[in-house]
């Protein structure tokens, strides 16, 4: 009798970013104090797990998360031709791809099984900030364009819990293993000098423009997925 059961998991869910206090405060103080905010974004997940004696699971987790922080505002400035109004559009595009090794504990053997788990690994991140300014005013240093672009690898951890709703009591003998629901929290150690381009553009400083700021250090979310047995594949 095979002691191990292997499953492939596909997930989709909503991720709620818990943004850095420094990032929000800097943005409000130097760009737009009445920013429009943002909304939850979709997270897609893929995992491959090995189950031992229906009590433990070891796995590899790969998720994809894309987050867009969008804002628009206007401001009036003094020019040699009098007062002029400029319109600003700010677009922060943030992508994370966490790749983690995980371990899970399954406290009870039954058709419907709860589980708790933790993962450790890294995230590939790509962060860009584009600014559009209209109209372009002669002599003004705020002309828009790409303000920041960087790719990085960041230490990442995940803690989660959930429940597997087995399609059958003897789930491991069928192609479809379970329907799975999961609550999770990601901790992503990613800090960037995202506002450094504004050092020569803004006359007043509330914070040091070269400071590294955590953009989205925490992601909280919920997902639903399906587990597929791969023993016979």
Stretches where pLDDT is under 50 for at least 5 consecutive residues are none
Shape: elongated
Tally of DSSP helical segments: 1
Work out the strand percent.
over 45%
Q: What is the C-alpha radius of gyration, as a whole number of Å?
A: 23 Å
How far apart the termini lie comes to: 17 Å
**Fraction in helix:** under 10%
Alpha-beta classification: mainly beta
Side-by-side strand order of the widest sheet: 1-2-3-4-5-6-7-10
Return the average pLDDT rounded to an integer. Answer: 86
Largest sheet: 8 strands, antiparallel, barrel
Count of individual beta strands: 10
State the order of secondary-structure elements, H for helix, E for strand: EHEEEEEEEEE
Describe what you observe in this structure.
The chain contains 1 helix and 10 strands; from the N terminus they run E-H-E-E-E-E-E-E-E-E-E. With 233 residues, the chain is mainly β. An 8-stranded antiparallel barrel has the order 1-2-3-4-5-6-7-10. A hairpin with a 3-residue loop joins strand 2 (41-52) and strand 3 (56-79). The longest helix is centred in the N-terminal third of the chain and has 10 residues, at 21-30. It is elongated. The two termini are 17 Å apart. The mean pLDDT is 86.
Features:
mainly beta; 4% helix
